[in-house]
Structures are given as C-alpha cells and as structure tokens.
Amino acid sequence: MPVWEGWKALWEQEWEPVSKAALVGWLTFYGLFLLYALTNRGGFLLIDHVNLIVHEAGHLLFGWFGSTPGLWGGTLLELLVPLALAVHFAYHRQTTGVAFAAFFFFENFLYISVYMADARAQVLPLVTVGASDAVEGHDWFLLFSRWGILEHDVSIARVVRILGWLGMLGTVGGLAKHGAGRRSAAAF
Fold first, then answer.
1. How many whole angstroms separate alpha carbon 186 and alpha carbon 74?
2. Would you say 47 and 104 are in contact if contact means Cβ atoms under 8 Å apart?
3. Does residue 12 register a pLDDT over 80?
4. Helix H segments across 40-136?
5. Alpha-carbon distances of 77 from 6, 55, 123, 132, rounded to whole Å
6. Are 75 and 55 a contacting pair, CB within 8 Å?
7. Interhelix angle 95-117/67-91, nearest 10 degrees
8. CB within 8 A of 140, min separation 6: which ones?
9. Backbone angles phi and psi of 25, in degrees to 5
10. pTM for this structure?
11. Which residues does 177 contact at the CB level (< 8 Å), separation at least 6?
C-alpha cells in the first residue's frame, strides 16, 4: 500500500464522539472566551501569560541554531506547541483535543498581532530570559526592518488578528458541526 493510502486510511478513521453535555460545555467555554477576547481592550489576555513563557522559551531553544532562528524562535514555538498538540490529538481522533489546540493556535495570532503592531511604537515592555543587555531588540521591529516592511506593521498586524479571529471562529464552528452528529474526519 502506498504511503498516501496509509495516511488516507488513517485520516478516514472514526473520530471520538462528543457527548451533548461535553459539546454544550465546550461551546460555552469558547463562547465566553471569545466574548472575553472581544471586550478586552488591553490586548493581553489571561492565556497570554502562558503564550509569553512559550515565546521566551522559543528564543532560548531556537537560539542554539543562531541569531536569526533565535529571533524567529519565540513566535515559532508559540505556534508549534498548539500545532503539535493538534496533530497529536488528530492522530488519536480526539475531537475536543483537536478543537482546543486549534483554537489556541489561532488565539496566538491575536497575541502575535499586538506585538507586531508595536514594532514602530515600541511601547510594550520587552520581556527576556537572562541578561537584559543581551536583548537585540523588539522581535517584530527587527524582522519588519530586515524585510523592508516596517511601515506596514499595523496593517500586517490587523491581517494577522483577523486570521486569528477567523481561525478561532472556524474551530468553534467545526466543533459544533462535528458534535451535532457527524463523526467522520470529513466533518472536522
């Protein structure tokens, strides 16, 4: 059997069903979180404390491969952690686990967009691990400057923020659709 057929067979396996009570509970949780995120004016949500720790760990981890990977590492690890969890849960066909990991993958876009939008203004306090004099500067200032797009920081951040919201809403919609009766991979 070709590799593609093996992956296709794996993907078509049945997903873990979601009970009505669990579906109502998860949809309530996501609805409340979305409301909280929508009404938050500070740009830093409670979950972003966790995102910040993962972000800083990414700089340390990817810093072993050089300064450029170290610079990218914060955002990379911030996205790789929930993505890896989503892949793990998908492999095991755990519907609510995939939804949770995917939801917070996209929630990271909100957090990242706040940091991107601050590239020129640099009013956000910088957090670092280790000696503060070793910090090169604001991640997105450095990246956008290298790419010659610094003047577009706010516009790029707006697009990233919209993608985050669309991803979170799409994840909740996918969970609702899957939990409403569809049990195959095609439903999610």
1. 33
2. yes
3. no
4. 48-63, 67-91, 95-117
5. 29, 6, 24, 21
6. yes
7. 160
8. 115, 116, 118, 119, 153
9. -60, -50
10. 0.85
11. 187, 188
Which residue in this structure is represented by tokens 């939801």? 103
> Would you state the pLDDT for residue 44?
80
Q: Give the residue-averaged pLDDT of 23-37.
A: 96
Query: Is 96 in contact with 22 (CB distance < 8 Å)?
Result: yes
The token pair at 1 is 């059997």
Residue length, the chain?
A: 188
Q: What is the CA radius of gyration of the chain?
A: 19
Cα-based angle 20, 22, 25 (whole degrees, multiple of 5) = 110
What gap in Å lies between CA 158 and CA 54, rounded to an integer?
23
pLDDT at position 133 over 70: no
Residue 166: what are its φ and ψ, rounded to 5°?
A: -60, -40
